[in-house]
């Protein structure tokens, strides 16, 4: 039973919920104890999350986004924007192997699963209906056009826009103004962005 702020779960059951963060009343998070959501982020209504997630600060997840993966983890950085309808799939059946498919099948009859963490670094921008498969790592500043498909075979470059099925590089992004604006915002909220620890020798 949800709290007055959400019809599916109690926001107090989340592992962490940052200040100023907005989670839509109809967002469905199946495992809130495995979800950490940073400050001033927004998860829009009708999104569905059934795995462990960590979301940074000032990040937006658009309506009807889906993040699934059972025991898997999805990690999302700061200043990330995920457009409506995106699918982040951290666990999937192996379509070529033996056994039956789907969550309704008892383990003893199930086929092999492919489960691997998905990571979106800071300033990633996903166009509407982008699909990301298990094991994908999107470096800082990667962007995708609408209806792009990313697989772990893609070796993605930072600050590059990709589009298509399968994804291909389109053109570089220009990060200077984004990084300058992010630096100013970080300076306004120093408690959210502590300085990095010095490298250990």
Describe the structure.
There is one protein chain. The protein is mostly beta strands. The chain is 6% helix and 29% strand. The protein contains 1 helix and 22 strands. It has one helix at 176-188, and strands spanning 16-17, 22-23, 28-29, 35-37, 42-43, 48-49, 52-55, 60-61, 66-68, 73-76, 81-82, 87-89, 91-93, 113-115, 118-120, 125-126, 131-132, 137-138, 143-144, 149-150, 160-163, 168-172. The protein has an 8-stranded mixed β-sheet, with no helix packed on it. The longest helix is centred in the last third of the chain and has 13 residues, at 176-188.
What tags apply to this protein structure?
single chain, 201 residues, six-stranded parallel beta sheet, globular
């Amino acid at each position: 039973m949800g709290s007055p702020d959400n019809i599916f779960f109690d926001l107090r059951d989340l592992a962490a919920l940052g200040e100023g963060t907005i989670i839509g009343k109809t967002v469905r998070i199946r495992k809130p104890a495995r979800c950490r959501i940073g400050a001033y982020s927004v998860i829009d209504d009708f999104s569905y999350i059934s795995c462990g997630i960590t979301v940074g600060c000032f990040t937006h997840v658009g309506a009807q986004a889906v993040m699934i993966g059972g025991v898997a983890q999805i990690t999302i950085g700061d200043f990330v924007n995920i457009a409506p309808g995106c699918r982040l799939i951290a666990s999937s059946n192996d379509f070529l192997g033996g056994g039956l498919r789907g969550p309704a099948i008892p383990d003893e009859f199930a086929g092999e699963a492919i489960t691997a963490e998905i990571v979106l670094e800071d300033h990633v921008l996903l166009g509407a209906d982008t699909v990301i498969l298990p094991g994908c790592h999107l470096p800082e500043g990667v962007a995708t056009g609408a209806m792009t498909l990313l697989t772990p075979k893609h070796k993605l470059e930072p600050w590059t826009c990709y589009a298509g099925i399968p994804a291909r590089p389109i053109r570089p992004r220009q990060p200077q103004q984004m990084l300058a604006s992010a630096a100013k915002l970080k300076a306004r909220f120093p408690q959210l962005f502590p300085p990095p620890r010095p490298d250990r020798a």
